[in-house]
Amino acid sequence: MKRVAILGAGFIASVHMEAWRKIEGAEVCAFFEVRPEKAREFQEKYHLPHYDSFRTLLEREVVDIVDICLPTFLHREYTEMAANAGKHVFCEKPIALTVEDALAMKDICTRNGVYLMVGHVLRFWGEYVKAKELLEGGACGKVLFVEAFRLAVTPVWSVGGWILDPRLSGGASLDLHIHDLDYVNWLLGQPKEVFARGLRSEKGSLDHITTQIQYDSGALATVQGGWMMQGDFPFTCGFRILGDEGVLEWSFRAGVNIEEREQVSPLVLYRKGEKKQEIVVQSEDPYLAELRYFLGCVEKDTPPARGTAEEATLALRVALSAQRSAEEGSPLTL
Protein backbone atom coordinates (compact mmCIF):
# COMPACT_ATOMS: atom_id res chain seq x y z
CA MET A 1 0.00 0.00 0.00
CA LYS A 2 1.47 3.33 -1.11
CA ARG A 3 0.74 6.32 1.10
CA VAL A 4 -0.12 9.63 -0.57
CA ALA A 5 0.01 13.17 0.76
CA ILE A 6 -2.05 15.77 -1.07
CA LEU A 7 -0.76 19.34 -1.08
CA GLY A 8 -3.63 21.80 -1.38
CA ALA A 9 -7.34 21.67 -0.63
CA GLY A 10 -8.87 23.47 -3.58
CA PHE A 11 -10.93 22.29 -6.55
CA ILE A 12 -8.31 20.11 -8.24
CA ALA A 13 -7.20 18.65 -4.88
CA SER A 14 -10.77 17.43 -4.38
CA VAL A 15 -10.80 15.94 -7.88
CA HIS A 16 -7.58 14.09 -7.05
CA MET A 17 -8.87 13.01 -3.65
CA GLU A 18 -11.98 11.46 -5.19
CA ALA A 19 -9.77 9.61 -7.67
CA TRP A 20 -7.33 8.29 -5.06
CA ARG A 21 -10.25 6.90 -3.04
CA LYS A 22 -11.09 4.61 -5.97
CA ILE A 23 -7.55 3.36 -6.62
CA GLU A 24 -6.51 0.07 -5.08
CA GLY A 25 -3.04 0.00 -3.61
CA ALA A 26 -3.00 3.62 -2.47
CA GLU A 27 -4.33 5.57 0.46
CA VAL A 28 -4.24 9.29 1.15
CA CYS A 29 -2.73 9.60 4.62
CA ALA A 30 -2.70 13.39 5.11
CA PHE A 31 -3.02 16.75 3.41
CA PHE A 32 -1.28 20.11 3.58
CA GLU A 33 -3.10 23.45 3.37
CA VAL A 34 -2.26 26.84 4.85
CA ARG A 35 -5.67 28.46 4.43
CA PRO A 36 -7.74 27.60 7.53
CA GLU A 37 -11.12 27.80 5.80
CA LYS A 38 -10.07 25.52 2.94
CA ALA A 39 -8.40 23.11 5.35
CA ARG A 40 -11.52 22.92 7.49
CA GLU A 41 -13.77 22.18 4.49
CA PHE A 42 -11.42 19.48 3.19
CA GLN A 43 -10.97 17.87 6.60
CA GLU A 44 -14.71 17.82 7.31
CA LYS A 45 -15.34 16.13 3.96
CA TYR A 46 -12.50 13.60 3.95
CA HIS A 47 -11.54 13.19 7.63
CA LEU A 48 -7.79 13.26 7.05
CA PRO A 49 -4.95 14.55 9.22
CA HIS A 50 -4.25 18.16 8.31
CA TYR A 51 -0.92 19.98 8.41
CA ASP A 52 -0.24 23.65 7.78
CA SER A 53 3.47 22.85 7.47
CA PHE A 54 4.67 20.47 4.77
CA ARG A 55 7.91 19.87 6.64
CA THR A 56 5.97 18.76 9.72
CA LEU A 57 3.83 16.46 7.56
CA LEU A 58 6.97 14.81 6.18
CA GLU A 59 8.40 14.41 9.68
CA ARG A 60 5.28 12.81 11.16
CA GLU A 61 3.76 10.80 8.32
CA VAL A 62 5.04 7.86 6.30
CA VAL A 63 4.63 9.06 2.70
CA ASP A 64 5.54 7.46 -0.63
CA ILE A 65 3.90 9.88 -3.09
CA VAL A 66 3.35 13.62 -2.87
CA ASP A 67 0.49 14.92 -5.04
CA ILE A 68 1.00 18.64 -5.64
CA CYS A 69 -2.28 20.50 -6.23
CA LEU A 70 -0.92 23.92 -5.30
CA PRO A 71 -0.81 27.13 -7.35
CA THR A 72 1.73 27.00 -10.16
CA PHE A 73 4.14 29.50 -8.60
CA LEU A 74 4.67 27.04 -5.72
CA HIS A 75 5.39 23.94 -7.81
CA ARG A 76 9.17 24.16 -7.81
CA GLU A 77 9.47 24.87 -4.07
CA TYR A 78 7.33 21.93 -2.99
CA THR A 79 8.71 19.55 -5.61
CA GLU A 80 12.20 20.25 -4.28
CA MET A 81 11.08 19.64 -0.68
CA ALA A 82 9.36 16.37 -1.62
CA ALA A 83 12.26 15.11 -3.73
CA ASN A 84 14.83 15.95 -1.07
CA ALA A 85 12.74 13.88 1.34
CA GLY A 86 12.85 10.94 -1.11
CA LYS A 87 9.18 11.13 -2.18
CA HIS A 88 7.84 10.52 -5.67
CA VAL A 89 6.05 13.57 -7.08
CA PHE A 90 2.89 13.93 -9.09
CA CYS A 91 2.49 17.63 -9.96
CA GLU A 92 -0.47 19.33 -11.57
CA LYS A 93 0.08 21.20 -14.83
CA PRO A 94 1.63 23.52 -15.80
CA ILE A 95 4.88 22.12 -14.48
CA ALA A 96 6.09 25.64 -13.63
CA LEU A 97 6.00 29.28 -14.69
CA THR A 98 9.50 29.24 -16.21
CA VAL A 99 11.61 26.75 -18.11
CA GLU A 100 14.36 27.30 -15.54
CA ASP A 101 12.07 26.08 -12.76
CA ALA A 102 10.84 23.14 -14.83
CA LEU A 103 14.38 21.96 -15.53
CA ALA A 104 15.31 22.36 -11.87
CA MET A 105 12.32 20.22 -10.83
CA LYS A 106 13.33 17.44 -13.20
CA ASP A 107 16.95 17.65 -12.10
CA ILE A 108 16.29 17.43 -8.37
CA CYS A 109 13.94 14.46 -8.80
CA THR A 110 16.53 12.68 -10.92
CA ARG A 111 19.30 13.38 -8.39
CA ASN A 112 17.17 12.03 -5.55
CA GLY A 113 16.12 8.92 -7.45
CA VAL A 114 12.39 9.72 -7.38
CA TYR A 115 9.86 9.94 -10.19
CA LEU A 116 8.22 13.15 -11.38
CA MET A 117 5.02 13.10 -13.43
CA VAL A 118 3.02 16.12 -14.56
CA GLY A 119 -0.76 16.05 -14.82
CA HIS A 120 -1.28 16.65 -18.53
CA VAL A 121 -4.60 14.88 -18.28
CA LEU A 122 -5.47 14.88 -22.00
CA ARG A 123 -2.94 12.09 -22.41
CA PHE A 124 -5.41 10.00 -20.37
CA TRP A 125 -8.70 11.50 -21.57
CA GLY A 126 -10.59 8.81 -23.51
CA GLU A 127 -11.45 10.71 -26.67
CA TYR A 128 -8.01 12.31 -26.94
CA VAL A 129 -6.32 8.95 -26.45
CA LYS A 130 -8.62 7.23 -28.95
CA ALA A 131 -8.00 9.95 -31.52
CA LYS A 132 -4.25 9.42 -31.24
CA GLU A 133 -4.73 5.65 -31.63
CA LEU A 134 -6.90 6.17 -34.73
CA LEU A 135 -4.34 8.50 -36.28
CA GLU A 136 -1.51 6.08 -35.59
CA GLY A 137 -3.62 3.39 -37.27
CA GLY A 138 -3.92 5.52 -40.41
CA ALA A 139 -7.57 6.53 -40.03
CA CYS A 140 -6.94 9.94 -41.61
CA GLY A 141 -3.81 9.13 -43.60
CA LYS A 142 -0.99 11.62 -43.21
CA VAL A 143 -1.92 14.29 -40.66
CA LEU A 144 -1.71 17.75 -42.21
CA PHE A 145 -3.47 20.07 -39.78
CA VAL A 146 -4.83 20.01 -36.21
CA GLU A 147 -7.23 22.50 -34.71
CA ALA A 148 -7.82 22.35 -30.94
CA PHE A 149 -9.74 24.63 -28.60
CA ARG A 150 -10.56 25.09 -24.92
CA LEU A 151 -12.87 27.92 -23.84
CA ALA A 152 -14.38 28.87 -20.49
CA VAL A 153 -15.76 31.70 -18.41
CA THR A 154 -13.42 33.45 -16.02
CA PRO A 155 -12.67 31.08 -13.11
CA VAL A 156 -13.80 32.16 -9.65
CA TRP A 157 -12.70 29.13 -7.62
CA SER A 158 -9.09 30.07 -6.80
CA VAL A 159 -8.35 31.20 -3.25
CA GLY A 160 -7.50 34.88 -3.29
CA GLY A 161 -7.95 34.92 -7.06
CA TRP A 162 -4.37 33.77 -7.68
CA ILE A 163 -5.36 32.13 -10.98
CA LEU A 164 -6.24 35.55 -12.43
CA ASP A 165 -2.85 37.06 -11.58
CA PRO A 166 -0.48 36.29 -14.50
CA ARG A 167 2.51 36.63 -12.18
CA LEU A 168 1.22 33.63 -10.20
CA SER A 169 -0.55 31.51 -12.83
CA GLY A 170 0.69 32.68 -16.21
CA GLY A 171 -2.89 33.52 -17.14
CA ALA A 172 -5.17 31.48 -19.39
CA SER A 173 -2.52 31.55 -22.11
CA LEU A 174 -0.44 29.29 -19.87
CA ASP A 175 -2.68 27.60 -17.32
CA LEU A 176 -5.53 26.63 -19.69
CA HIS A 177 -3.95 26.83 -23.14
CA ILE A 178 -1.14 24.44 -22.20
CA HIS A 179 -3.54 21.46 -22.17
CA ASP A 180 -4.00 21.60 -25.93
CA LEU A 181 -0.46 22.72 -26.71
CA ASP A 182 0.74 19.55 -25.02
CA TYR A 183 -1.83 17.47 -26.90
CA VAL A 184 -0.86 18.71 -30.37
CA ASN A 185 2.79 18.12 -29.43
CA TRP A 186 1.81 14.53 -28.55
CA LEU A 187 0.18 14.13 -31.96
CA LEU A 188 2.62 15.99 -34.17
CA GLY A 189 6.07 15.80 -32.54
CA GLN A 190 8.64 18.56 -32.36
CA PRO A 191 7.34 22.12 -32.80
CA LYS A 192 9.40 24.37 -35.02
CA GLU A 193 7.78 27.81 -35.10
CA VAL A 194 5.10 29.60 -33.07
CA PHE A 195 2.97 32.64 -33.91
CA ALA A 196 0.22 33.91 -31.61
CA ARG A 197 -2.31 36.70 -31.16
CA GLY A 198 -4.35 37.33 -28.04
CA LEU A 199 -6.60 39.47 -25.90
CA ARG A 200 -5.84 40.80 -22.45
CA SER A 201 -8.09 40.97 -19.41
CA GLU A 202 -8.67 44.13 -17.41
CA LYS A 203 -5.77 43.00 -15.20
CA GLY A 204 -3.48 42.81 -18.22
CA SER A 205 -3.40 39.02 -18.34
CA LEU A 206 -3.25 37.34 -21.76
CA ASP A 207 -6.46 35.39 -21.23
CA HIS A 208 -7.66 34.58 -24.75
CA ILE A 209 -5.14 33.40 -27.30
CA THR A 210 -4.84 31.74 -30.69
CA THR A 211 -1.53 30.03 -31.39
CA GLN A 212 -0.34 28.74 -34.75
CA ILE A 213 2.40 26.12 -34.68
CA GLN A 214 4.52 24.64 -37.44
CA TYR A 215 6.07 21.23 -36.76
CA ASP A 216 9.25 19.62 -38.07
CA SER A 217 7.05 17.13 -39.95
CA GLY A 218 5.47 19.98 -41.93
CA ALA A 219 2.14 19.61 -40.13
CA LEU A 220 0.39 22.72 -38.85
CA ALA A 221 -1.75 23.37 -35.78
CA THR A 222 -4.01 26.17 -34.61
CA VAL A 223 -4.82 26.14 -30.90
CA GLN A 224 -7.30 28.51 -29.27
CA GLY A 225 -7.77 28.88 -25.54
CA GLY A 226 -9.12 31.31 -23.02
CA TRP A 227 -11.37 32.05 -20.08
CA MET A 228 -12.96 35.30 -21.26
CA MET A 229 -16.27 33.77 -22.35
CA GLN A 230 -19.39 35.44 -21.00
CA GLY A 231 -22.59 34.60 -19.14
CA ASP A 232 -23.47 30.91 -18.81
CA PHE A 233 -21.14 29.82 -21.60
CA PRO A 234 -20.26 26.19 -20.80
CA PHE A 235 -16.74 24.82 -20.58
CA THR A 236 -16.09 23.82 -24.20
CA CYS A 237 -13.23 21.88 -25.74
CA GLY A 238 -12.49 19.75 -28.76
CA PHE A 239 -10.41 19.21 -31.87
CA ARG A 240 -10.57 18.80 -35.64
CA ILE A 241 -7.83 16.84 -37.37
CA LEU A 242 -7.30 16.96 -41.14
CA GLY A 243 -5.38 14.24 -42.95
CA ASP A 244 -4.90 13.50 -46.63
CA GLU A 245 -7.43 10.65 -46.38
CA GLY A 246 -9.89 11.82 -43.75
CA VAL A 247 -11.04 14.16 -41.00
CA LEU A 248 -11.54 13.35 -37.32
CA GLU A 249 -13.40 15.71 -35.03
CA TRP A 250 -14.78 15.89 -31.50
CA SER A 251 -16.34 18.58 -29.35
CA PHE A 252 -17.54 18.55 -25.79
CA ARG A 253 -19.34 20.78 -23.30
CA ALA A 254 -19.00 20.09 -19.58
CA GLY A 255 -20.78 22.56 -17.33
CA VAL A 256 -18.98 25.61 -16.00
CA ASN A 257 -15.79 23.91 -14.77
CA ILE A 258 -15.54 20.32 -16.12
CA GLU A 259 -17.83 19.06 -13.35
CA GLU A 260 -19.99 17.34 -15.99
CA ARG A 261 -17.08 15.57 -17.68
CA GLU A 262 -18.82 12.16 -17.53
CA GLN A 263 -21.02 13.12 -20.49
CA VAL A 264 -20.32 11.22 -23.69
CA SER A 265 -19.87 12.90 -27.07
CA PRO A 266 -18.80 10.69 -30.01
CA LEU A 267 -15.74 11.12 -32.15
CA VAL A 268 -16.75 11.56 -35.79
CA LEU A 269 -14.58 10.20 -38.59
CA TYR A 270 -15.03 11.29 -42.20
CA ARG A 271 -13.15 9.37 -44.90
CA LYS A 272 -13.07 9.66 -48.66
CA GLY A 273 -15.85 7.67 -50.29
CA GLU A 274 -17.28 6.44 -46.98
CA LYS A 275 -20.18 7.37 -44.72
CA LYS A 276 -19.25 9.23 -41.57
CA GLN A 277 -18.48 7.00 -38.60
CA GLU A 278 -19.42 7.92 -35.05
CA ILE A 279 -17.16 6.38 -32.41
CA VAL A 280 -18.35 6.38 -28.82
CA VAL A 281 -15.51 6.10 -26.32
CA GLN A 282 -16.35 4.56 -22.97
CA SER A 283 -13.59 5.46 -20.56
CA GLU A 284 -12.93 6.06 -16.90
CA ASP A 285 -12.37 9.44 -15.35
CA PRO A 286 -9.07 10.72 -16.81
CA TYR A 287 -7.86 12.09 -13.47
CA LEU A 288 -8.31 8.66 -11.95
CA ALA A 289 -6.53 7.11 -14.94
CA GLU A 290 -3.47 9.35 -14.71
CA LEU A 291 -3.07 8.86 -10.95
CA ARG A 292 -3.49 5.09 -11.24
CA TYR A 293 -0.86 5.12 -13.99
CA PHE A 294 1.59 7.01 -11.78
CA LEU A 295 0.95 4.63 -8.89
CA GLY A 296 1.76 1.75 -11.23
CA CYS A 297 5.04 3.42 -12.21
CA VAL A 298 6.01 3.74 -8.55
CA GLU A 299 4.99 0.18 -7.72
CA LYS A 300 6.88 -1.28 -10.70
CA ASP A 301 9.82 1.11 -10.31
CA THR A 302 9.35 2.24 -13.91
CA PRO A 303 9.74 5.87 -15.01
CA PRO A 304 6.55 7.45 -16.39
CA ALA A 305 6.31 7.43 -20.19
CA ARG A 306 3.33 9.79 -20.29
CA GLY A 307 3.19 13.15 -18.59
CA THR A 308 6.96 13.25 -18.36
CA ALA A 309 8.88 16.28 -17.19
CA GLU A 310 10.38 16.57 -20.68
CA GLU A 311 6.94 16.65 -22.31
CA ALA A 312 5.67 19.15 -19.76
CA THR A 313 8.69 21.38 -20.28
CA LEU A 314 8.23 21.32 -24.07
CA ALA A 315 4.59 22.36 -23.66
CA LEU A 316 5.73 25.14 -21.34
CA ARG A 317 8.28 26.33 -23.91
CA VAL A 318 5.55 26.52 -26.56
CA ALA A 319 3.17 28.38 -24.22
CA LEU A 320 5.82 30.91 -23.20
CA SER A 321 6.85 31.37 -26.83
CA ALA A 322 3.21 31.99 -27.73
CA GLN A 323 2.96 34.67 -25.04
CA ARG A 324 6.12 36.34 -26.30
CA SER A 325 4.96 36.11 -29.92
CA ALA A 326 1.66 37.76 -29.02
CA GLU A 327 3.52 40.55 -27.25
CA GLU A 328 6.00 41.12 -30.09
CA GLY A 329 3.58 40.50 -32.97
CA SER A 330 5.96 38.19 -34.79
CA PRO A 331 6.65 34.44 -35.14
CA LEU A 332 9.28 32.77 -32.97
CA THR A 333 11.51 29.83 -33.77
CA LEU A 334 11.76 27.20 -31.04
UniProtKB/TrEMBL annotation:
Residues in Gfo/Idh/MocA-like oxidoreductase N-terminal domain copies: 3-120
Occurrences of domain GFO/IDH/MocA-like oxidoreductase (ranges): 128-249
Database matches in SUPFAM superfamilies: Glyceraldehyde-3-phosphate dehydrogenase-like, C-terminal domain, NAD(P)-binding Rossmann-fold domains
Domain of life: Bacteria
UniProt-recorded Gene Ontology molecular function terms: nucleotide binding
A Pfam family annotated for this UniProt entry: GFO_IDH_MocA
Protein name: Gfo/Idh/MocA family oxidoreductase
Organism of origin: Candidatus Caldatribacterium saccharofermentans
Lineage of the species this protein comes from: Bacteria, Pseudomonadati, Atribacterota, Atribacteria, Atribacterales
